[in-house]
Specification:
The complex is a heterodimer of chains A (247) and B (418). With 247 residues, chain A is of the alpha/beta class. Helix content of chain A is 30%, strand content 20%. Chain B is an alpha+beta fold and 418 residues long. The chains are: A alpha/beta (247), B alpha+beta (418).
């Protein structure tokens, strides 16, 4: 089952759909049941999707499909008009580097780099992000601007990341996911390690910066309370139950 | 930031465990290079102990034995060569020079060698290097002695000091020629050969201290130093002699002639050939050493493999993060390979450093104890190829964690297994 927040946005898909799943099925070799089965899901630019699912419902598998780490067993996953199945593994990695930002539950950062280095790291694997991040100024200045916008004071920018609180670390992760203006932001339970106050502030900042960058947000969580903030919601069920999405 | 920089920063973050690995590799490299160095130095020291000498002649015995006592002052002659035989060969056509050697006595653990002054003119070692009297002069009188550098240094002797020669090779109060002390008139410069550890006296000196001895003890008649000088001190026999020929091409003919000498059984050996042959016999030990250090290296590489494999577990998170920002599986593999190469290269550098450190530290001691003077030189082709082999071997070994990391990063994807 999935909730539908704004039916008007789910008209016939435009060719410019940011994300488009068509009969996408996924199972590991040797498995008898599909882990993921999504018949039709389209997301237009500016829409934000909330994916709700309990643990074991295939959230991680869906993220891997959306990020192009895995490809569907059948059906298609199209991002920005590109069918990921048609790309080689390394082209999919490059596609992810160029067009997607990812935020994990926690431990997003490399402990041996400073805050700033962690943010600019996203530009190491993508020329596109590097060029875009350097469009006004240089990459480092852009990173600092993003960190400021996410309420991280200057004194934390050159600190080792293990000095930062969990909330701060998650905001650094947002900065890294957003630098270079990717079209899609995938967040996997990014608030689960935060308390309620921090969670709300974090979500406010996340939405504000995603909007500022015209970035489509795909947000996975088990917490149904968060669904209200999103224009679209789908729910994942564990593999044995029916999966369905209302569009 | 490229993969290399990420690898360096990541490695620095985990430096404690990696330092241990580097240390293990360093020890292996030091062992390998050190054994190779010692092998070569021993060989060259061996072959250079005596040079420009065409034949060494002594009473019939095995070539190795003759070589050992005449050149290395190790062991004893089985028999002597009579003075007449010596003179007849020395005066033969085609013989350019001879140096007689008379052994059998010692001074506080150092061998005493009776010889003629031709020794200083014709004995050469290393790359045609002659003996140089550093202080004082050659012996002239019967009771003069010229010391090797180590003898003077170890025992603290200076010119003018008097020394007592002991009969035989073990110093004992009852068997000393204490009635006929020798005066130090010269000290040789260091050669790095057994010459350094030799006390040189004239053949007449050897004869003089034995005039009133019979066999292993004193005879009834005692003659003091002055009285002995009045006698004819031409020796009746010597232990061995070195021969230089006018024409080296004659070496084999002269050798055969001496070996078939009708009046006395003798052996003539070519020092170079015998040294090389002898070296082959003892170099099996070096080969064994080399094989053992090879095993040490394998253990070191396996240790490295274990360390890297175990760090892969703690690095799953790091790898998932890198994958999430677009790192390919091949990036992950190169991260592992780069780290391995960094560790091994650091291990090699540290190992070579340790090797030179030990070389400098142990050089004086080794020269003093063995007469092998280790040359401080750059690494040669073998040693460099040892290092290359270590790095290539490590690269091959690192493919294992590389493949594991590759398969995992495909499998895990963006899942964070904590």
């Amino acid at each position: 089952m999935s909730a539908e927040a704004d039916p008007s946005k789910t008209s016939v898909a435009q060719p410019g759909a940011v994300l488009c799943l068509d009969g996408a099925r996924f199972r590991w070799p040797g498995q008898s049941d599909d882990l993921i089965s999504i018949d039709d899901l389209r997301l237009e630019a500016g829409e934000h999707l909330f994916v709700r699912g309990a643990s074991g419902s295939g959230k991680t598998t869906l993220l891997n499909l959306l990020a192009g780490v895995n490809t569907p067993t059948s059906g298609s996953v199209r991002l920005l008009g590109t069918d990921l199945s048609e790309l080689s593994a390394s082209r999919r990695d490059q596609f992810r580097a160029d067009h997607i930002g990812v935020i994990f539950q926690q431990f997003n950062l490399l402990p041996y780099l400073t805050t700033l280095e962690n943010v600019t790291l996203a530009c190491s694997f993508s020329d596109r992000k590097r060029v875009r991040a350097a469009a006004d100024g240089d990459v480092e200045a852009t990173a600092r601007r993003l960190l400021h916008a996410l309420n991280l004071a200057e004194r934390f920018h050159d600190a080792q990341v293990n000095r930062l609180s969990v909330g701060q670390q998650q905001r650094v992760a947002v900065a890294r996911a957003l630098i270079g203006g990717p079209e899609i932001l995938i967040a996997d339970e990014p608030t689960s390690a935060l308390d309620a106050d921090n969670r709300d502030r974090f979500l406010d900042l996340l939405f504000r910066e995603a909007e500022a960058q015209h970035c489509t947000l795909v947000f996975v969580s088990h917490d149904p309370q968060l669904a209200d903030r999103f224009s679209r919601t789908i729910e994942l069920r564990s593999p044995d139950a029916d999966q369905e999405l209302a569009s | 930031m490229n993969v290399l920089r990420i690898a360096i920063k990541s490695a620095r973050f985990r430096r404690t465990s990696l330092l241990l690995t580097i240390f293990t590799i360093a020890i292996s490299v030091t062992l390998l290079v050190g054994v190779d160095k010692i092998r070569k130095e021993s060989r060259s020291s061996f072959v250079n102990t005596v040079s420009q000498t065409d034949l060494i002649v002594g009473a019939r015995s095995s070539p190795a034995n003759l070589l050992l006592y005449s050149v290395f002052r190790i062991g004893n002659a089985t028999n002597n060569v009579s003075w007449e035989t010596y003179e007849s060969i020395a005066n033969q056509d085609g013989v350019a020079w001879t140096v007689p050697i008379s052994l059998g006595d010692s001074h506080r653990g150092f061998r005493v060698m009776g010889t003629s002054t031709d020794y200083f003119d014709f004995y050469q070692y290393g790359d045609q290097r002659p003996l140089v009297v550093g202080e004082g002069q050659r012996f002239d009188g019967v009771y003069d002695t010229v010391l090797g550098a180590d003898v003077a240094n170890d025992l603290g002797y200076a010119l003018g000091d008097e020394i007592i020669i002991a009969h035989g090779l073990v110093s004992a109060d009852f068997a000393e020629h204490d009635d006929k002390p020798f005066t130090v008139v010269g000290i040789l410069e260091k050669t790095g050969t057994p010459v350094d550890r030799t006390v040189h006296v004239s053949l007449a000196g050897i004869e003089a201290i034995h005039v009133d001895w019979q066999g292993g003890g004193r005879s009834g008649v005692e003659l003091n130093a002055e009285q002995a000088l009045l006698l004819d001190l031409t020796p009746t026999s010597i232990t061995a002699f070195l021969v230089g020929l006018d024409n080296r091409a004659e070496t084999f003919r002269v050798q055969r002639q001496i070996n078939e000498y009708p009046d006395e059984p003798m052996s003539a050996i070519l020092p170079g050939a015998t040294l090389a042959e002898f070296w082959r016999t003892i170099s099996t030990i070096e080969q064994v050493l080399f094989v053992i250090s090879g095993f040490v290296l394998i253990v070191g590489l396996l240790g490295m493999l274990t360390t890297i494999l175990s760090t892969l577990n703690e690095r799953r998170r790091e790898i998932a993060v890198l994958r999430s920002i677009g790192a390919r599986a091949s990036h992950v593999v190169s991260l592992i390979l780069v780290e391995t190469l960094l560790v091994v290269t650091a291990g090699c550098v540290a190992g070579v450093g340790l090797f030179y450190g030990l070389l400098f530290a142990a050089r004086p001691m080794i020269a003093r104890r063995t007469g092998v003077d280790l040359a401080v030189t750059w690494l040669d082709a073998t040693q460099l190829s040892i290092l290359g082999g270590v790095i290539i071997g490590a690269g091959v070994v690192a493919l294992i964690p590389g493949i594991v990391a590759y398969r995992r990063s495909i499998q895990d994807g963006l899942a964070l297994k904590v």
